[in-house]
Design goal:
single chain, 720 residues, eleven-stranded mixed sheet, two-stranded antiparallel ribbon, 9% strand, 60% helix
Length: 720
């Protein structure tokens, strides 16, 4: 116990600030949200010296070398980097394949139809304007420029005058960084307290399987694999590796940023080498050069996001097979030279995972960055230390120590893999099923309503065929036509209530007219007949506005624009991933409820593609599986795959097609249509349409929000 108190008393303030911040956040909850700007200010303070530090360190570090030394240094650094990549990637994929069986299903995301960004390696790495690269924060291009200039100075006989000046500047920047680090515990406390106080349990629960994978993988890399390798191959002890990394790890964990830790890492390595009296003339320069270079190249921290690619594939029912690992790994290594937010969509595309999964990554990045960033720190430190001793030809395999360390790695890895599998198996079972979420959604604002399953005989006589707003208000009843199986626009929930995007709009319209609403069912091919006979005043059910029906009914202005997609069995999704693959296939039979004019043209142009109209979408999912795929909007497709998770959604490449949906009235009721268009303009302007879209199609708010728990709320609730 005395040793524990002695250690805690010597521990730096950053550790105490981290612990105290977590405690304060848990006690006061959302009440400490005001501390967030303080933490942001300290992060900006730490960033003041970063870019100048990189420039000075690289130019001075390389410039002081002789040309004959550089070739050997670079070669050995490259070998060490490739070796660490190889070991780390094997570990990452080991954890990725611990994912248990899962039935996929998720809401639509607008990112599904967004243009996927291409990685511009030229812009990333060719510094056309080094000063612009510095201003824009383009670290790779800046590093390339500094390497080029530093290398050019190696053979210059007059380099000492410039290098001395830059050396003095570097020392000044180092002093500033150290001063900042002394007061940075305040920033760490503010960031940790505000994060611990405001982060919701829902954020963790939404993607808890991925979170488990990230935490176990990164903890293994940070505290087992990387320090054990350094300890096994160099004179540096395991405890010393953790000691060197401690400040940088805490900073990276708190801020989620590796960039601001670079001076801390460099100074930590140099200080350790000098204190242990194992530094030589080259070690400081090597550290100053390799730290920013290691940051620029893909780190094991960045590569852990391969877990997200595997998780996204698992979540959407596209499990990655062993045969895909080599190509995905190579793609990751190439794409992670760029910004991670450019690389992730690129990797998802390579894995044939719907691009909307990127939104999940953004949602979780606040949490996962707390573990990914420290992993990058541990990698940079391990790479630099191993490279220094490799360059000095001091790597050694100490038989007992090496076997012992590797033995620990060999025991801990499968143990953590087993823990990951068991935890995630339990979590995936206990989580709320996707079909439960969509089946329990409800219309928030309701007016008195009757939902009919047939057309009343009184309407068939044509007594109510003529209608307008005045008539609707006098009869105090708005009659709305709906299609029963058209999720997420109109469908019956678990309580057998008629709900959906258009049903919410219908209740909103009736409320504004101050009348009741009556819902009358129809099938798509009955639309014109029922409207013109006056069976209902307006049809509101995610109706496609198409050319064929323009002569029969009057459509409102478009309410939404939807993206055409395909639904097929999970194991067949790759067959429909692009237009070319579809056309190369044997004759295909597609089912559809709508889109007949468009599909007729397609079948005329491509005789191998056949389309058959079905009454409703459920017939496809619960039928005899005679169709290869279903033609449907992507927005509706994701809702249906939540009910039937064995199916997946595909938006084929090079075959993007959009279409509008709206309301429909009889051809003779133009005044009624004008009213609805003006009403729709108002609802789009005041955000009601967007609110319903967010809820019914994107799934925002589909789960009840739980108030953030805190100790003080718990105490006050017990003792009011």
């Amino acid at each position: 116990m005395k040793k524990l108190f002695a250690y805690l008393s010597k521990a730096n303030l950053m550790l105490w600030a981290l612990i105290l911040g977590i405690v304060v956040g848990l006690i006061f909850g959302e009440r400490v949200q005001w501390m967030s700007p303080i933490g942001a200010a300290f992060i900006k303070l730490m960033q003041i010296t970063i870019f100048p530090y990189i420039v000075v360190s690289l130019i001075v570090g390389l410039g002081k070398f002789e040309p004959s030394q550089v070739k050997s240094i670079i070669l050995k650094a490259v070998i060490m980097m490739l070796s660490l990549w190889g070991v780390g990637i094997v570990v990452i994929w080991c954890f990725a394949f611990t994912l248990p069986h899962h039935d996929a299903g998720t809401f639509f995301s607008s990112a599904l139809v967004a243009t996927r960004p291409d990685i511009d390696f030229v812009a990333q790495y060719i510094p056309a304007n080094p000063f612009a690269s510095m201003a824009e924060g383009n670290v790779p291009a800046l590093v390339v420029f500094c390497i080029a200039l530093g290398t050019a100075l190696m053979g210059n006989v007059r380099k000492s005058s410039l290098l001395n000046i830059l050396d003095v500047l570097g020392e000044g920047l180092s002093v500033i960084s150290k001063k900042m680090i002394k007061i940075f515990p305040i920033g760490i406390f503010a960031i940790t307290a505000s994060t611990a106080g405001t982060i919701s349990l829902e954020q963790i629960n939404n993607l808890q399987v991925y979170f488990v994978l990230v935490v176990l993988t990164t903890l293994f890399l940070i505290f087992v694999l990387l320090p054990m390798l350094v300890s096994a191959l160099t004179p540096v002890k395991y405890r010393d590796v953790i000691g060197i990394a401690r400040n940088a790890l805490i900073t990276a964990f708190t801020t989620g940023s590796v960039f601001i830790t670079l001076p801390v890492i460099t100074e930590g390595i140099k200080d350790y080498m000098h204190k242990r009296e194992i530094a030589d003339a080259q070690s400081d320069h090597v550290a100053e050069v390799l730290v920013p270079i290691a940051f620029t190249f893909p780190s094991l921290g960045k590569l852990t996001t391969l877990l997200f690619v595997a998780f996204s594939a698992w979540l959407t029912g596209h499990e990655i097979g062993f045969e895909e690992v080599p190509s995905l790994t190579l793609t990751a290594l190439l794409s992670y030279f760029a910004n991670v937010h450019i690389a992730i969509p690129y990797l998802l595309d390579a894995a044939r995972v719907p691009a909307d999964a990127y939104q999940l990554y953004l949602a979780m990045s606040v949490l996962t960055a707390k573990f990914v960033s420290p992993t990058s720190v541990a990698y940079i430190i391990s790479f630099t230390l191993l490279s220094i001793f490799y360059i000095r030809s001091e790597l050694s395999f100490k038989r007992v120590k090496t076997v012992f360390n590797l033995g620990i790695v060999g025991v801990v890895l499968p143990s953590l893999m087993l823990v990951a599998f068991m935890l995630n198996s339990k979590l995936s079972e206990s989580g709320t099923a996707s079909d439960e979420i969509i089946a329990n959604m409800q219309v928030a604002t309701k007016v008195p309503a009757d939902v009919l399953s047939f057309v009343p005989k009184a309407y068939e006589a044509g007594q109510l065929s003529l209608t307008n707003i005045d008539v609707i208000k006098k009869r105090k009843l708005l009659r709305v036509g709906y299609m029963a199986e058209n999720a997420p626009f109109s469908y019956f929930n678990r309580k057998h209530e008629l709900v959906g995007f258009d049903i919410s709009l219908a209740h909103e319209l009736a409320a504004d007219l101050e009348v009741k609403v009556e819902f009358i069912p129809f099938k798509k091919d009955q639309l014109a007949q029922y409207l013109n006979k006056g069976y209902f005043d307006i049809a509101m059910s995610g109706l496609e506005i198409n050319v064929r029906d323009l002569e029969k009914v009057t459509y409102s202005d478009p309410v939404l624009e939807l993206q055409l997609a395909l639904v097929t069995k999970d194991h067949r999704m790759k067959e429909f991933s692009s237009r070319e693959k579809i056309l190369e296939h044997e004759p295909l039979l597609f089912a559809s409820v709508e889109h007949q004019p468009f599909l007729k043209k397609v079948s005329q142009q491509q005789p191998s593609l056949h389309f058959k109209t079905i009454d409703n979408y459920r017939d496809f999912f619960e039928g005899k599986n005679q169709y290869d795929a279903l033609v449907i909007s992507a927005e509706a497709a994701f809702s249906w795959t939540m009910f039937y998770p064995e199916y997946g959604v595909v938006v084929p490449e090079n075959a993007s097609t959009k279409y509008p949906i709206g309301f429909a009235v009889s051809k003779r009721h133009l005044d009624l249509n004008n009213y609805f268009n003006s009403w729709l303009d108002i609802k789009q302007a005041n955000g009601k349409v967007q609110k319903f879209y967010d809820y019914w199609i994107l799934g925002k708010g589909s789960k009840p929000k739980v108030k953030r728990w805190s100790v003080i709320d718990e105490v006050t609730s017990i003792n009011p």
